[in-house]
């Protein structure tokens, strides 16, 4: 987790959010993780959220939107989740990464088309080992609801609600997500990100916020 600038973990009892003033305790762990905890032993559900101090403002100039894309990729599983056999899947993923490096270094259109075709072929082979949405399904298996994430100008937030008696399993799942992510199925996910961006471009409020953030 040291590769991530700052991570905030927020755990709030649902009843407390709506019925009474929050009594938040803050802890900072040895690894830099800062925990915000509002404890209510009478609550049956918890809102858990992990905040990463990175967002759109951290995008490289030649790769705008990469923070939002990363948000999506962190739902694609790990070496143990989202795959039928990671040892067989990994060679294809490694080849895809190598081909993308080649693609970025070549300007000739015909040569790029050849490389893109190879990427598509490797994507198809890698997808044979992928289990789409297994990460989401695992969270739902412990009673999680509202599983989602958002990327803003300077923060990325991953969150959901879950039963209070599942807190340790929830923590294990989220820790696993950040420690051992595998970026699979990223071509199809890129289409999803573009669709979201197109929808957002029709939202006046979002356009105003984006224009403001460009100058901050």
Summarize the structure.
The protein has 216 residues and is α+β, with helices and mostly antiparallel strands. It contains eight helices and six strands; from the N terminus they run βαβββααααββααα.
Characterize the structure shown:
- With 216 residues, this protein is α+β, with helices and mostly antiparallel strands.
- The protein has 2 domains: 7-76 and 132-183, Cytochrome Bc1 Complex, Chain A, domain 1, CATH 3.30.830; 84-129.
- Helix content is 46%, strand content 19%.
- It has 8 helices and 6 strands, in the order βαβββααααββααα.
- Strands 2-3-1-4-6-5 form a 6-stranded mixed sheet.
- A hairpin with a 4-residue loop joins β5 and β6 (156-163).
- α2 (66-73) crosses α7 and α3 (86-105) packs antiparallel against α4 (109-127).
- The chain is elongated.
- Mean pLDDT is 85; it is low at 1-6.
């Amino acid at each position: 987790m040291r590769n991530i600038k700052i991570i905030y973990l927020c755990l709030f009892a649902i009843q407390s959010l709506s019925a009474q003033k929050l009594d938040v305790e803050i802890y900072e762990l040895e690894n830099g993780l800062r925990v915000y905890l509002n404890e209510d032993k009478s609550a049956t559900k918890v809102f858990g959220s992990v905040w990463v101090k990175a967002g759109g403002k951290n995008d490289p100039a030649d790769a705008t939107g990469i923070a939002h894309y990363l948000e999506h990729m962190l739902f694609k599983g790990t070496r143990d989740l989202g795959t039928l056999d990671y040892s067989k899947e990994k060679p294809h993923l490694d080849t895809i990464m190598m081909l993308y490096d080649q693609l970025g270094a070549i300007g000739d259109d015909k040569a790029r088309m050849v490389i893109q075709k190879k990427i598509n072929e490797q994507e198809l082979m890698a997808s044979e080992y992928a289990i789409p949405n297994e990460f989401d399904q695992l969270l739902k298996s412990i009673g999680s609801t509202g599983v989602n994430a958002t990327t803003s100008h300077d923060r990325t937030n991953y969150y959901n609600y879950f039963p209070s008696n599942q807190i340790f399993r929830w923590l294990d799942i989220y820790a696993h997500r950040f420690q051992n992510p595998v970026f699979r199925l990223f071509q199809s996910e890129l289409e999803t990100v573009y669709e979201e961006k197109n929808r957002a471009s029709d939202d006046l409020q979002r356009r105003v916020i984006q224009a403001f953030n460009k100058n901050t």
